[in-house]
Amino acid sequence: MTKADDIRLIRTTGLPSAERRAVERAAKRGELERIRPGVLVEPGSLDGLYPNERHVVLVRASSSRLRQQDVLSHESACAVLGLPYVGQWPAKVHVSDPTTTHTRVTAWFVRHGARNRPPTGTPDRHGLRSTTAARTVVDIAATRPLLGALPVLDHALRTVASQPSELQRETERLEKGHAKAALAIAMGSALSESPAESVCRVRFRQVGAPEPEQQHVFARHGERTAVVDFWFPAQGVVVEVDGRSKYSDDPGRSTADAHWQEKRREDFIRSFPEVRFVVRLSWADLMDPDRVRTALVRAGVPCR
């Protein structure tokens, strides 16, 4: 559950005409913010929400237009299920429609024809039905770029929201995009601990780097232990992704203490004779494959 679930939606449908006109006047004065025609929120309600949370609000605002057979799917299912899609969140709500084989786009919805793959879904606290985690993962993997699909897949595997056997069954049911989905499923890893690590794995593939070990442990008897995101043993290179998460999630530590602890951690990693180089990649680096390639090549990791 996110903050988006608790935002109060003000709907004009069904209100007495006088109340409806008062709400519309308030909207014109800027006292209310319009989400959809006839659906408003108090100003500032959406401030501080992440894009996925904003999409949840959009889904909730659109729920009155959902038909009984509609099941939320694709990015909309990701948002409601809490799956970390990486990419542009759509301005329309995506649903699977088991009554047709054709995809139709309307003012509010993208309705994916699913007669040959009728979806199932369990209602959430708002009564919204979404495709299962496994179905959602496969739909995204079959239709979206690998950069967006792998974080969803890795998260589902890591949190055991989907089993590999479920993903395989859903992939076999696909009519289109089977090869694309199969590629993503084959890359899936429960060892990826964040969307950034999943994106990094996609970049490694894109730049032609060798396959690294994930969550490699560096340890000495009687000393501390450090687990690194990626380890290229043949080149002696450690790759850490957005290291802030490793030292910023303890509210009891100051920023200075956190950075000092991270420096000690990296010094410990570098003290192992097999470690030649430590590469740190930020989210901004990951958004540019050329920056990833340059950082790896500089450290001695071969790329295309």
Whole-number radius of gyration?
23 Å
Strand line-up in the sheet with most strands:
4-5-7-6
Uncertain residue ranges: none
Strand content: 15-25%
Description:
The protein has 304 residues and is of the alpha+beta class. 40% of the residues lie in helices and 18% in strands. It has twelve helices and 13 strands. Strand 11 and strand 12 form a beta hairpin. It starts with 9 loop residues before the first strand and ends in a 5-residue tail after the last helix.
Record keyword descriptors for this entry.
304 residues, alpha+beta, 4-stranded mixed β-sheet, 40% helix
Helices and strands, with pairings:
Layout (H helix, E strand, L loop, with lengths): L9 E2 L5 H12 L4 E4 L2 E3 L9 H12 L8 E2 L1 H8 L11 E5 L6 E2 L3 E5 L7 E3 L5 E3 L1 H11 L2 H13 L5 H9 L5 H10 L7 H13 L5 E7 L5 E8 L4 E5 L2 H4 L7 H16 L6 E5 L1 H4 L2 H11 L5
Parallel strand pairs: 5-7, 12-13
Antiparallel strand pairs: 1-3, 2-3, 4-5, 6-7, 8-9, 10-11, 11-12
Helix pairs in contact: 2-3, 3-4, 4-5, 4-6, 4-7, 5-7, 5-8, 6-7, 8-12
Short description:
It contains twelve helices and 13 strands. It is an alpha+beta fold and 304 residues long.
